[in-house]
Specification:
With 504 residues, this protein is an alpha+beta fold. Helix content is 37%, strand content 25%. The chain is built from 16 helices and 20 strands. The strands form 5 sheets. Strands 6-10-11-20-19-18-15-14 form an 8-stranded mixed beta sheet, with helices on both faces. Helix 7 crosses helix 8, helix 11 packs across helix 13 and helix 14 runs antiparallel to helix 15. The longest helix has 33 residues.
């Protein structure tokens, strides 16, 4: 009990101290306003250089006048001189402020300034006696007053949940966070360049739909007031993109936000980003080649190596990734040969012997059992890049059947370090077969499976006009960035991940 009281008193003391700091900063702002110097009235400051320019071009910029701006991150007073560290979009630079140069009034303002304030300065580039590249200030202007203190310098913002909730503070305090999102931006930029150079056209498709489709997932539902109908936020971009293939746009892609009303964990956020692409007259082997080439070259271009660390594992993205059928992977890791079973009952018995159980209410077919054995016993064993091919038709309602074994489809998923990063098909273009698979999804939905798809009559109508043989691919951008940045949670690579509201 005494420890609880001590902790409560400590928390109350911290809150009181913070309140005092907030009030002091507001009082400073109020005094500036009363003196007619409201910093928030400043509308523009013209910069002629960034921190990186000064550091990288010192030899040519020495003694040159510059205008710079940034956030004050450190202050050291030395009599009638003050050293400030400011951070801008490119890095950090030291400022030297001397009372004789800026005047007594401005010098006093700098002394009273707070860490976190945003300032603009003019001055000339020089090196201190310690050899540090700096700017000797001539003028200083307060551009925005920081009314909240930043986290303590040496500990920074370390509370992981608070980092997600207050990403703006995380970005201020943690340069590695900024680096993560610079890599994300570079990855998406390279993705566009890569696909554009291969003749793909970037398109946009609807986020709001009257039906769900393109994936097996529970949707978010919203309501359109004018139409008086429910609409579903998209769970995939697939079916609209394949309509474009029907229309003669032979290579298309979309980088889009996807929304799924499902659980949240280190691999899943309710909204996430994917790229889906479709190429006429191609198949899933072409998509396999494209996936391997793109991800390996992206790693080399962005981080400078095929080798990287992720979740405690050393990953090698050098080309020539392993390819295994799903049945082959199950045989390798469990010893069960699904091709040897003469009945579903034999498959059920073998799966039960290794502890694999079917999800409640789901029928135990040969294909479903194969998938569950892989999902429950094999996926966690896949560390190095591995393409798992030939998925059962039961779990692949939009993929073309294998001519040699109609129980299976021409589909692959890419796994790296126990994570699925890509999913691809030789797309089903037979409207009769597609309608039967949609009807199967409708049956499952009627039986209570809220993740099952709906009947999309217009998509069947499109296929009836004729869709050429097509290869389709989806890559999870968030997980790819997790891999490139050695991030353990999807929240680390989303600027503003979905968070449960804080109780008042």
């Amino acid at each position: 009990m005494s420890n609880d009281i001590q902790e409560d008193n400590s928390t109350q003391s911290d809150e009181n101290e913070l309140s005092e700091i907030l009030q002091i900063r507001r009082d400073k702002l109020q005094k500036l306003v009363e003196e007619g110097r409201d910093p928030f009235e400043t509308t523009k400051f013209v910069r002629t250089a960034y921190s990186v320019d000064v550091h990288e071009n010192y030899d040519t910029m020495e003694n040159t006048d510059v205008s710079m701006a940034g956030r004050v991150m450190a202050k050291r007073e030395m009599g009638k001189a003050i050293f400030l560290d400011i951070v801008d979009d490119k890095g950090k630079i030291q400022l030297y402020v001397r009372e004789n140069d800026v005047g007594e009034s401005v010098f006093a303002d700098v002394k009273k300034g707070d860490i976190g304030d945003i300032i603009g300065i003019t001055g000339f580039v020089f090196k201190t006696r310690m050899g540090e590249v700096s700017v000797h200030c001539k003028t200083i202007a307060l551009l925005a007053k920081s009314l909240r203190p930043l986290p303590e310098k040496y500990h920074g913002l370390t509370n992981q949940e608070l980092k997600y909730r207050q990403r703006y503070v995380d970005l201020i305090m943690n340069p590695e966070t900024r680096r993560t999102f610079e890599i994300r931006s570079a990855f998406i930029s390279y993705l566009r360049s890569y696909l554009d150079n291969k003749g793909y056209i970037e398109v946009e498709t609807p986020v709001l739909n009257t039906l769900t489709g393109g994936a097996t997932a529970r949707p978010f539902i919203t309501y359109h007031n004018t139409l008086g109908i429910d609409l579903y936020m998209r769970i995939a971009t697939e079916l609209h993109l394949k309509r474009l293939i029907v229309g003669g746009m032979e290579r298309v892609y979309e980088i889009g936000r996807i929304f799924r009303n499902e659980g949240m964990d280190t691999k899943h956020n309710p909204e996430f980003t994917t790229v889906e692409l479709y190429e006429a007259y191609a198949d899933y082997y072409d998509m396999m080649d494209l996936t391997e080439e793109f991800l390996s070259t992206a790693a080399m271009k962005i981080i400078g190596s095929y080798e990287l660390s992720w979740q405690g594992e050393r990953i090698d993205l050098s080309p020539s990734w392993e390819r295994m059928t799903m049945a082959g992977a199950v045989l390798k890791h469990t010893g069960i040969d699904f091709y040897s079973f003469e009945s579903t009952e034999a498959a059920i018995k073998a799966a039960a012997e290794i502890g694999v159980k079917m999800p409640e209410g789901k029928e135990a077919t040969w294909g479903d059992l194969l998938y569950e054995c892989f999902d429950q016993r094999v996926e966690a064993e896949l560390i190095q890049p591995t393409f798992i091919t030939d998925h059962p038709v039961e779990v692949s309602p939009l993929a073309k059947r294998k001519a040699s074994d109609p129980r299976l489809t021409e589909r692959f998923e890419l796994f790296i370090c126990r994570n699925e990063l890509a999913n691809a098909f030789s797309e089903l273009n037979d409207p009769i077969d597609q309608k039967q698979r949609f009807l199967r999804q409708v049956e499952l939905r009627s039986a209570g499976d809220l993740e099952a798809g709906m009947m999309d009559d217009d998509y069947i109508n499109a296929l009836e006009y004729g869709m050429p043989p097509t290869g389709g691919l989806g890559i999870g951008i968030d997980r790819a960035v997790m891999m490139l940045t050695n991030s353990s949670s999807i929240r680390d690579v989303l600027l503003f991940p979905t968070m449960k509201p804080i109780d008042d």
